[in-house]
Design brief:
The structure holds 2 protein chains of 2 kinds. By secondary structure, chain A is mainly alpha-helical. Chain A contains 18 helices and 14 strands. By secondary structure, chain B is of the alpha+beta class. In chain B, helix 1 runs antiparallel to helix 8. The longest helix of chain B is centred in the last third of the chain and has 53 residues, at 257-309. The chains are: A mainly alpha, B alpha+beta.
Chain lengths: 537, 319
Amino acid sequence: MAKGKSLRIGAGISVAIIILLIGFMGVFDVTAVSKTPVDTQSTEFRPDIVFFDNMEAFGKLEKTKAVFLHDQHTDALEKKNKDCLVCHKTENGRMSPKFMRLKDVSREELTKIYCDNCTKCHTETIAAGEKAGPVKCDDCHRERPEVQSSRVPMGFDKSLHFRHYHAQKNQCDRCHHEYDQKNQKLFYAKGKEGTCRYCHKEAPTSDGTEKVISMRLASHSACIDCHQKTAAKQMDAGPVRCAGCHDAKEQLEIEKVKSVPRLKRGQPDNVLIKTGDKKGRIPTMMRVPFSHKAHEEYNDTCRVCHLASLESCATCHPLVGSNKKVKNGREISLKTAFHKRGHQSSCIGCHESKQQDKNCAGCHASMTGNPQKESSTCLRCHMVPLPERTGELSTSRAAKMARLMPRLWKETFGPIYTVDVPKTVIIKDLVDQYEPVEYPHKKVFDTMVKQLDNSKLAQYFHYEDATLCRGCHHNTPVTGKPPRCGTCHGKPFNTDYLFRPGIMGSYHQQCIGCHQKMGIEKYTGCTSCHKERKKQS
Amino acid sequence: MSISRRKFLGWVGAAGLSTTIGKPASASTNQEFAGYPDSFAILHDTTLCVGCRSCEAACNKVNDLPQPDRPFTDLSVLETPRRTTTKTFTVVNKYDNLKKPGHPVFYKKQCNHCLEPACASACFVRAFSKTKTGAVVYDASVCVGCRYCMIACPFEIPTYEYDQALTPRIRKCTMCHPRVIEGQLPGCVEACPMEALSFGKREDMIKIARERFRKYPDRYVDHIYGEHEMGGTSWLYVSGAPFKELGMREDLGTTPAPELTAGALSSVPIIVGLWPVLLAGIYAVSKRKEKIAQTEQEQAAASALDADRFEPSQPEEES
């Protein structure tokens, strides 16, 4: 009996101790900062890596994707005087980019095609006493591939387009085609040419009855086939190896035509962008004269603006936005399409992106991310038609207007900055440790004016005498002599103007900020601008 | 020992109950404390900082610290990361900008003046106190030199004058408390040419930070470091680079340090009170057991002796 009691007492004590210990545990609840392991394995970067991932279409992969180095195989075969047909089959005289087959097959068949053909060739090569690739499963299907892809996408820019156009002796039908649903045939439709990607998307799509092959398959079958055939005729031909198109270095070696003649696709020189609808509803804004020709020069491809087709914007974008379930741009109103910020295809988006340029960022970076546009800025595009005095606008017909545009623009293009500005400005508000600063006001101004020469866009929007000045003299009236900085910027941390920097802060933020953004001079300490003040004793 | 087993178990039960059911410790902390109203704070905008070290020079001057080996105009000092010492209350460190190579980020490090300072809660002589201006100040006259504050600080800021044999002190940024109560700006803030340091009411500093996020969304990481870290600090930071890349801890959580330790510390009185009782109880129980065992043994021995002396007892017959 006594033994049982003491056992119970012992249990009671240990329970109490455990409770106390749990209380203590909270103190030691300190989480250690975990360090991510550093990958010391050196990886090789190659542009020609093909991941055999086509099995993913059948569901989860049993093994990791096999990594295939395409150029290595091309080169090895070339050395043995063998051609691509060792691995690729041909159909109607055109080589298929698919491995040892023409059409997609079942999972089992596909596995067999890859495993059998790869290992067969490798085994034969090894038997012949030569170096060859793996014959064991896990040597192809590696957990951690030793190579990484450095592949860069290939673009078909204006220059390349012109070189092909020239080489094909203006035969557009060699590449451009439409699909005839009835006859299930490809045919060439003159005047309907567009970029490949309008139909061939990243992944294969189904267009009603027929499957449209992916851009990847389309480009690899068409481009490489033609390059090979051209090369076979002992003519100058484009690349057939992966690196030729997809290696960053080799891409730079592709010849560029300096002045590409305009593409001929029946596009207008000038367009008058309407703001009302066809029914004649009263437009809310002035119409926008747009130089299509000039914008062709600024961009590398049509696709920059014409995202889905070469038709006019209003073909897809409606005048008024819709919240109905519509797709392919039809849900985006014309107004948004033109004014959307941060989108390269919209007018404002593209124009604003140019403000990030080194020459412009000095002023524009400090301007707020969401400016309240002044109505005068809107009018730069939504132009008030030329005054009646010219007599040519009396009919106000669109066609006439378009013809007038070059003249219209000439009149509106950047003013000649002939403002009389002070040569130097002595800033002595803050004389303490350092001597007053002699600010080379005219030199800065002249540099800014000079920058305008490089950009037509900048000339166009810095249209008033004082537009440039407002980069520094912000929030001040456009006319007359601007007030001194100290008028607004005084003692720092004034709670009445919480967001306004003090005088010292504003000078330094303005000067150093601009220098940094424009990459003018690296800041090397206070004395790079200020002369040390000698102490009077 | 006249302690009954029933009484002892009663005590143990009561003690156990009080630790489990009792109100969660709120010993000396006010859990809802969000800083003194209208207390000051400093906002460090790392996107504006150019690493000129003017703040370091000013700090050195206003605190009468010894001149460093290399002058403050020597910017090559920035090449190696530094920490605060007994002779430098603030350091500016340079970090590579992973987003924009070639545009390094500068981050000024000093005491963050927590709203609920870990150093103060760790100090058992109350050498640290959070003042109404926002500064965490130190009183060397009561300090016993235990350096618990150095271990407690999550930012590794307090430093100890190991080289002082007789009067070693803890040294750290004072947020220029003496200057602030006289209506002056902290030395570093006054000296900053870029206004990368802003000084004012803590709420206003948060407003300024938020306004900058709104105006220049691309320039900043949308987070004010110090608004909630460790329950909030009187130094606030905004940055274009992730704070982790500036060597700032992002694993601290938002619970103030005193709250983390309050639970354990509040059990100190219970332990101090309970353990003597508990140990004495165990002692008494074991003593009692020994005593009983001893008397039983003695009785047994005595009866055995008796049996030897007399005739062995005959088993009783059943009737």
